[in-house]
Amino acid sequence: MKTVNVGIIGGGLMGREMASAFARWCALTEVTVAPRLVAVADLNPATLEWFKIIPTATQRVTDYAELLANPAVDVVYVAVPHHLHERIYADVLAAGKDLFAEKPFGIDLASARRIAEAARASGRFVRCSSEMPFFPGAQRALAVARSGKIGRVLGAVSGFHHSSDLDPTKPANWKRTNATCGEGGVLNDLGMHACHLPLRLGWKPKRLFAQLQRGSPERPDGRGGVAACDTWDNAQLHAWADIGGEETPLRLEMKRLAPGATNTWFFELLGTEGGVRFSTAEPKTLWLFERGKEQWWKRTELGFATPFKTVTGGIFEPGFPDVIQQMWAAFLMERAGELGGRFGCATPEEAVASHEIFAAALASHREQRIVIL
Ligand SMILES: NC(=O)c1ccc[n+]([C@@H]2O[C@H](COP(=O)([O-])OP(=O)(O)OC[C@H]3O[C@@H](n4cnc5c(N)ncnc54)[C@H](O)[C@@H]3O)[C@@H](O)[C@H]2O)c1
Question: Which of 50, 61, 80, 175 to probe ligand 1 with, by most ligand atoms within 8 A of CB?
């Protein structure tokens, strides 16, 4: 097993999720590379304290320049607010490190394009985080979409729903202001999840009409005061894409005001002969449509059929931490040239394409018109 030394910049929600995925790497059986977390940078000393439970994470610094100067670090994962993406990603590349970037890969389209250009010019291995397609149900849906066996495609839906903003008393964080989350708001926050699979399938929208909705205009700031919130919270993008050689309706949805939904990623594809539906709300349930003399929606209880196999085989059901770990396995194995036909992480090109969709959605809503991409 080869070891890759990883540094994390931004040890908040996602920084810690990634660290815990590394800590149970022994669950994977088909990998020839293992990550070792050696360094963490975060502005908050209390956050750095948490990383003391990981014995290999001996470099814990508030200034990320120190992490980048550490010659032992091979790969840097960056999970910071969106307005800091471009600067820190550029610094990682300039330090000669490979980069696992968080979505949305820059605060807006121009930023994403500059990051992608810096990545290309650096020659470093760069991918963008998007874990939901690593669910076994998502992989099966991908296989159905690629099979060409569902007849004429009637439409597809891909989305990500949260109810995280329904409670108006929930304190604001940086994701609720345009200055730090970006003008895209929920598009920046959840859009990559909705766009990744359609883009991988080549279904880039040709034109779209967007409906955007705002959330609470203000929230508690967590310090006894009130914070103004100006981001879009819900987005429905009604698009047309070439699917199966025909222009086809494709709906992309991302919501932080979706009653009842908690981190729910879903994908549906319907054709005249067949179809598929998967939602992480039912993480081991795959629905397949078939049409004969009668019509059927067949329900399959999926096992743990992840791209990379695990010690316990197929008998359990998958969850968020599992697909995070699968995504890292894909990142490290692709970097080592050993992905072997499995699903790879989102590329810089896909990240830029997702921003092209977000920019078109913003223009569409602003001008109340269909935007051609
Ligand atoms: N892939 C996913 O499913 C997923 C889920 C949530 C968030 N994200 C993405 O991850 C990124 C971070 O989101 P989060 O929810 O973890 O945020 P967070 O607020 O929980 O954590 C961000 C961390 O960055 C630190 N930080 C800020 N500026 C810094 C700097 N200059 N140097 C070092 N550290 C700094 C903060 O102290 C904080 O600990 C965002 O891009 C977000 O969109 C991805």
Answer: 80
Rounded to whole angstroms, the Cα distance separating 143 from 341 reads 13
Shortest-distance Cα residue to atom 19 of ligand 1: 12
Structure tokens at 137: 């149900």
- Summarize the confidence of residues 115-130 as an average pLDDT: 98
CA angle 60, 62, 65 (to 5 degrees): 95
With 0-12 / 13-18 / 19 or more C-beta atoms within 10 angstroms meaning exposed / middle / buried, residue 92 is buried
Q: What is the pLDDT of residues 131-190, one digit of tens each?
A: 999 999 999 999 999 999 999 999 999 999 999 899 999 999 999 999 999 999 999 999
For tokens 């729910």, the residue is 264
**With a 6 A CB cut-off, is 128 part of the ligand 1 pocket?**
no
DSSP letter for 218, please: E
Report how far residue 298's alpha carbon sits from residue 95's, in angstroms, rounded to the nearest whole number.
52
pTM exceeds 0.90 for this model: yes
Terminal CA-to-CA distance of the chain, rounded, Å? 45
Residue nearest atom 5 in ligand 1 by C-alpha distance: 14
Q: Tell me how far apart the alpha carbons of residues 15 and 281 are, in angstroms, rounded to a whole number.
A: 24
At residue 216, the 3 state secondary structure works out as coil
Using DSSP's 3-state secondary structure scheme, residue 272 falls into coil
Strands, sheet with 126-128, edge to edge from the N-terminal-most edge strand:
59-61, 33-41, 2-9, 75-78, 98-101, 126-128
Instruction: Give Cβ neighbours of residue 225 (< 8 Å, ≥ 6 apart).
Output: none
* Locus of tokens 């990051």: 115
